[in-house]
Amino acid sequence: MLLTERRVLLRALLLLLGLKTVATEETSDDSPRMLSTPSNLNVIEGATVLLPCNVLNIERKVRIWKHLPSRILFSGSISVSRDSQIHLVNGSALRIDAITPRYAGEYVCLVSHHPALNVTHRIHVLVPPSVQPDPSNGKVIIRKGNPATLACNVSGIPQPVVTWTHEHEGIQSASLPSGVRQVLGGTQLQIASADVHHAGSYRCTAENDVGEPSSAVLVLTVLYAPELIVSPEWNHGDEGATVEFMCTCHSAPPSHILWMRTGQETPLQASDRVKLKHKLTPPTTTEAWIKLQRLRKEDLGSYTCLAKNSVGQSTKTVEISGLAEPVQLRGDQSSDSSFLLMWTAKSYSPIIEYQLKIRRYKSDDEWTDVMIPVSEESLQQSLFFSHSYNVTGLEPGTRYEAVLQAHNDFGWNRPSETLLFSAGDPPTTEPVVSSTYLPFYDADLDITDPTYLKQGSSASTPLPFQLVHILFLIGLSLL
């Protein structure tokens, strides 16, 4: 009672002195005061959050918790929302368990009858990235030439950054194949016209610096008809020989391969003379071999590699011929105005003659055709036939090109590869020829001499060649 009277007298004295009434320290001790401060929290999804609301001198007043804008959670100790993940701790703090994005936002704790006495906490829920392939099985199958779309359904807070990598036939690349375009923030790939090089695995990876990156794989299969490569396309053969061909097929799905004699409807079957072998290299390559042993005359001719799949079929033809194999033409400098051409040809039957074609390199000149006869000694060679010619009358410093063909009992073979040369310089290209086959040197050939510019093989070997050849053989026997 005495303390109250003193307060009344103090106020009266202040009024008489013209001073305003001020709240004394004693009166402030009785008023509620908010001790907690606002917070701005980044919380990873699934974590537990504790929001404080410490109030001094709350006495009989109650705390009211709200999830703005209007959701009331607690009034005092009474749960209004009845949310099983939200709890009141020690009658004051708000606890949220296993938080999810729906709990993001502002939470305010205010004191009843004192709405200005409050504290606000802001929660940002961070969600690690998540990726789901679209379609859900991760498989996209399209025919060659048609458009294709690959997509990833990406979620996360903040919005993840999406990157793609491509893997094809075991080779992984950070860059996408040509013709692939990223759209919709990178979550989708579009291909206007699918091709074989677009096939493979596409990995979609999402990152947002929350938790670990997430990824999904989509596999694009481009269906296409067989595409064939045969090696060799042509093979030299005769009675008793063995030849082999390989047919390589690229297709999706993999193809079934048959070997057939051209013009016949029945596929070749394995036998003691016919050997067949297949090999599948997933996902798109099939190889098929055929080996023909102990050839007979009737085996000569063409053979077809036939490949089929659900998209279509394709064929490639190879040939077994009695013609000589293409000549391996080489050469060496003879003098400033001549050049020695040498060659070796493989043939099961004797080579009767050769045809040489020469002209200035990259010119519009007509080819100079030279028929080169074969001596009796050359006819007696077996399987590998070697020969040479010394071309004279060349212009120093001028480049020439030459091709050669060989004629045996079956006709003219395919032309050799072009040899580029000039007098006084080595040739530009030099096909590899075994050194065990010694060349037989003919007399000099002057391409400016019109007597050599005739077709046919009636010209006989000049006497100087015969003498040189006999001396050569005598020399070998003395060794």
Automatic annotation (TrEMBL):
Residues 1-24 form the signal peptide. One of its GO terms (cellular component) is axon. GO terms for biological process: homophilic cell adhesion via plasma membrane adhesion molecules; synapse organization. Residues 325-426 form the Fibronectin type-III domain. SMART domains: FN3 (SM00060), IG (SM00409), IGc2 (SM00408). One of its GO terms (molecular function) is axon guidance receptor activity. It comes from the Eukaryota. Keywords: Disulfide bond, Immunoglobulin domain, Repeat, Signal. PANTHER family: CONTACTIN 5, IG-LIKE DOMAIN-CONTAINING PROTEIN. This is Hemicentin-2. InterPro entries: Cell_Adh-Cytoskel_Orgn, FN3_dom, FN3_sf, Ig-like_dom, Ig-like_dom_sf, Ig-like_fold, Ig_I-set, Ig_sub. The lineage of its organism: Eukaryota, Metazoa, Ecdysozoa, Arthropoda, Chelicerata. The gene is HMCN2. PROSITE patterns: FN3, IG_LIKE. Residues 32-120, 129-221, 226-321 form the Ig-like domain.
